[in-house]
Amino acid sequence: MNMKWLLVIIAATFEVGWATGLKYANDTLSWTLTAIAIVVSFTLLIKAATSLPTSTVYAVFAGLGTVGTVIVDIVFFNAPINFWMLAFVALLLVGVIGLKMVTGDTSERRARS
Predict the structure, then answer these.
(1) Average model confidence (pLDDT) for the chain?
(2) Which of 34, 38, 40, 105 lies 20 to 30 angstroms, CA to CA, from 14?
(3) What is the pTM assigned to this prediction?
(4) Cβ within 8 Å of residue 70, ≥6 positions away
């Protein structure tokens, strides 16, 4: 995995933080941390998208963020779990992994041309 894809994964991790913060923040500190997570998340996403295909970067970012947010809700906030929710989250994760596997960065595509 190259460094740009690592940036996407880190950005998605921060997305989990700010998405959770938007729902549960209730004081100045938690709102400040949520705002910082938003800035860091999108800064890393933009940096990664400069050399990776934007559509795939955003799909991977959103998919990993969604999966991470569901896991955080289940583990830390006792969100209800059902078979269909887990099945569709697994399907989303398979799609994200598939996109990552079939997409190279622009420098790889330029080298092949």
Answers:
(1) 89
(2) 105
(3) 0.81
(4) 79, 85, 89
